[in-house]
Write a structure and sequence with these properties.
mainly alpha, Tetracycline Repressor, domain 2, 10 helices, about 70% helix
């Protein structure tokens, strides 16, 4: 990373380095102990310089999840484009679920997105983020609609509901330590869920609904 970011290319390199560092700090600390100070220190960067790129810690993590989304959409699009007919390819529910579970950082950030990350960002940042999501969702929905032989609007709905279901089940699958201890009671086994099993079950239902 350049010591001083002067050109647009240098600024992009610095921004990428900041996002990489923020992701690594988040992986290590979680949301409660995530600070701009720690990110700046990990880059040997003045905190004031960091704030010139992102004004809040929530905005920084929102930028990190945008990159996670970008990577996920790219991967899903590539898998869907290889064989749009679906012959010899994993079923759509399995494809979507496994591609999400391969990204633990994305899952953790998704569970914080609406409740934490979108609460302390400027309107312009929120609009830019949602516009990015809409553009990528629309593109992927087009490929899904072709694979599932369903209307584009139903494929968009599937992707929106996929996010909501993933967040809800991720919360249930990662209870607090005291709740995890309580759920060890066999009589409460119905609440101790396996994320992949339950997410796959839910997404299969979403796929079936899109095809109707």
């Amino acid at each position: 990373m350049p010591r001083r970011a002067r050109s647009d290319a240098d600024k992009e390199l610095r921004r990428a380095a900041i996002l990489d560092a923020a992701g690594e700090v988040f992986d290590r600390t979680g949301i409660d102990d995530f600070t701009m100070d720690e990110v700046a220190a990990s880059l040997a960067l003045a905190k004031g310089t960091l704030y010139r790129y992102v004004p809040t810690r929530e905005g920084l993590l929102l930028a990190v999840i945008a990159e996670e989304y970008r990577s996920w959409f790219d991967a899903v699009d590539a898998l869907l484009a290889v064989d749009p007919s679906g012959r010899g390819a994993p079923d759509v529910a399995t494809l979507l679920v496994d591609s999400l579970l391969e990204r633990p950082r994305m899952l953790r950030l998704l569970s914080l997105m609406s409740s934490v990350l979108e609460r302390n960002v400027p309107r312009e940042t929120a609009h830019e983020f949602k516009s990015f999501l809409l553009t990528r969702t629309t593109t992927t929905a087009g490929l899904l609609a072709q694979r599932l032989d369903c209307p584009q609007a139903e494929a968009v709905r599937l992707l929106v509901h996929l996010q909501a279901v993933t967040v809800g089940l991720h919360h249930h699958a990662h209870p607090s330590p005291v709740v995890a201890e309580v759920l060890a009671d066999p009589s409460l086994a119905a609440f101790a869920i396996d994320l992949r099993t339950e997410l796959l079950h839910a997404v299969q239902a979403l796929v079936a609904a899109a095809r109707r």
